[in-house]
């Protein structure tokens, strides 16, 4: 568990790992339709990979407007702070790029996780791909 690294990924070079994780979590586990999972933003986004001993186990992406999304950790690695490591890397990169506000759409069950990282709920609950979500916002100081 202590061998977790997070790095910025290359959408082309790391595509197989990024797709493998997102397909396992969002499409297989959560039944998100593939046409909703893959979008034009992927080409422009900054992607992140969490790796344990070189094996990709988690992913996230950051858009130019500060929107964070597609945060996913493979089931066997959940509860091991992989999500924390991923999010800290994404927030640090957002701040490095001068993005003073980071936004995300969180599944309702994950809101406490994001609140610990400084995000606040800024919307009513709504359904996305059949899953309850809320919008959340974090402001850098």
UniProtKB/TrEMBL annotation:
Annotated CDD domains: NAT_SF
One annotated GO molecular function: acyltransferase activity, transferring groups other than amino-acyl groups
Keywords noted in UniProt: Acyltransferase, Transferase
UniProt xrefs under SUPFAM superfamilies: Acyl-CoA N-acyltransferases (Nat)
A Pfam family: Acetyltransf_10
Record PROSITE patterns: GNAT (PS51186)
Every N-acetyltransferase domain range: 4-141
Name of the protein in question: GNAT family N-acetyltransferase
Protein source organism: Stutzerimonas degradans
Taxonomic path: Bacteria, Pseudomonadati, Pseudomonadota, Gammaproteobacteria, Pseudomonadales
């Amino acid at each position: 568990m202590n061998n977790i690294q997070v790095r910025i990924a290359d959408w082309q070079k790391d595509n197989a790992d990024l797709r493998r994780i997102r397909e396992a979590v969002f499409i297989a586990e959560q039944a998100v339709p593939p046409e909703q999972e893959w979008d034009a933003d992927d080409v422009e986004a900054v992607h992140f990979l969490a790796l344990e001993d070189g094996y990709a186990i988690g992913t996230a992406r950051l858009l130019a407007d500060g929107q964070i999304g597609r945060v996913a950790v493979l089931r066997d690695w959940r509860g091991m702070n992989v999500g924390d490591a991923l999010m800290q890397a994404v927030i640090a990169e957002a701040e490095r790029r001068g993005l003073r506000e980071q936004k995300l759409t969180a599944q309702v069950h994950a809101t406490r996780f994001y609140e610990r990282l400084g995000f606040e709920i800024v919307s009513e609950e709504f359904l996305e791909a059949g899953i309850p979500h809320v919008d959340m916002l974090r402001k850098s100081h």
